[in-house]
Structures are given as C-alpha cells and as structure tokens.
Amino acid sequence: MGQVFRPLDRCGRQPPHQSVPHTQTSQEATAQDARRTHRKKSPDFATVSQLTEAWAQGYAKGDPRRQACDRFAERFGHLKPRDLTPMLVNALIAEWKAKLAPSTAYHRRRIVAKLLQMMEQFGGAKLADQLPRLRRPQPRTVTASPAEIAALLREAPAWQRLFVTLAWQLGLRHAECYRVTPRSHNREKETVTIQRKGGQTQTLPTTPDVEALLAAAGDTSGREDLAYINILRGKDTTARASRCSWWRLAKKAGAEHIRPHDLRHTIINATYNITRDLRAAQQIAGHQSLQSTVSYLAPLTPEELRDYQRLLEFRSDVKQ
Fold this sequence. Notes:
By secondary structure, this protein is mainly alpha-helical. It is 50% helix and 4% strand. A 3-stranded antiparallel sheet has the order 1-2-3, with no helix packed on it. Strand 1 (185-186) and strand 2 (191-195) form a beta hairpin. The N and C termini lie far apart (136 Å).
C-alpha cells in the first residue's frame, strides 16, 4: 500500500490525524440496552398500610391484634416506613393510653413494637426500643357468684343463655363461643371441637345444660357452619352488637360489673378449687402455659387463709 499524503494547512503543517467516526452496530446497541436494563435500582419500599396488611393477614377480623394493626394503618398508612418518627408513633401510644383500658393499651403497644421491628427490614428506623413503657396490667380476678349467674340466665333469651353457658361451663372466650357450630358439635360423644386462641384445636366435653340449648336449635341441615348462637337468634350477630347486648343483659340482671370474660374466670377458679389440679384448669382455659392459668386464679380471702392455717395445726412452745 502506498503512502497516504495529506494536504498541508495554510501554515505549511500537516493537520492532526482524525479518526473515522465509529458507527454502532445493531448488536452493540442491543447489548448496551440490556446493560441499562439490568442496572441495580434503588429499592422502592411499600407503604405502611401495605406492609401492615400483609403482616396482619393471619389474624381474624375481630382479633384485638388485628384491630391494633388496623388503627396503626389508619394513622400512618399513607407513609413509607422511613417516614415514621418516634414523635408520631409515641403520640399514638399516648392517645391509646388516655382513651383505652390499661390492658388494651398495653397489648396494642406490644403489637406496634412488633410491627416496627418488621418495618426495619423495609427502610424503617429502629423505633421499637423508643416506644414509651406501659405498666403491665394486673390480671382481672373477678368471678361471678351463683346468684349473679342465675340472674343472667333468667333474664337472657335462648341465644344469650347459650352464650352465658358456653363461657361459664366450658370456659370459652367471647369469639370462641361463636365457633361452636353444628359441624364442630358431636352429638353422640357430646363434645365440641373448636379452634382456640393461638390457633390450636381442642376438643371439650359439653355439659347437659349446653346439650339442651344446642338441641333447641332443631334441624341444622344446610346451616352446618353457622354459629349455634346465630341459629337460635335467627340472624347473624356482629361482635359489637353482641357486646352491646351483653351490657343490656348485665344491667337488667343487676350484674353490671360482670364481663363475659369473668364467666370464664369463674369456671377456671371453680375447677381448681375443686380439683386442686392446675392441669385441669389449664385444659379448660385452653392455655399453652401454666403461668397464664395461674394469673386467672383469684386471691384467697382472709377467711380462706385462716381455714388453711387451722389445717396446718400449728403447735409450738412459745411462751406468753
């Protein structure tokens, strides 16, 4: 190949060598576009409402834990986890403490702490340790007397008598009473099998009073999954309507201080006082821990303590 001569410029110098512009091929353009597509982007975290809903989906609609999650999402649902601050969250806890029962505020605060720990994985700050401390409430140890139970049963319609009897004689919680359905009831063995708090399934023997009230529902064909309480009432009952009906019944029976959960306390205490067997009380309560069962036991009266002192037969040579 011969030498390539380039023309001189006006000063008699050769111009600098200029490279020919490179034309990008279609394959190179496709590869460049692919590299742009696979570039790592900064993460875009979901909102507090979306994360809370996903975290709480395992809880039933009327579950207190679900209610705490719903209230949290109502207040902060439009924010991203990184936007939550101690001032915002602590203001909600202070509002609950002022308006709600001590036990409700305490348990809601625990749920919020778990929510905040989960949101740390999605860009949220470490706020769980900065929540205000709430004193653990003392367990309620109120029990219903035989006269109060008799008054409740006397004033209650059939569906509410079943509710009272399930809580008083089987130790069921409010929501668990509504899980007693024709499908869960074994007439031959006289048992009910229901899901209890915590998700465990338990089979409990029924009592003659419970069986008589269940039989009053009559033919339940086609209604196997309806609560016996709703069958006897003739319509579905919401949790709020059920609680309002309870307070009207308690006022009418002259037992305003008795709550539905106190009926559960009554059977647990009666079982332990008769058997002195914590395992029997624990099984009726449906507790996984004996510590929970012990917290249900009412303190002894001075008269009961004196009776035990007499049984111990203290004898000594103490001089007067």
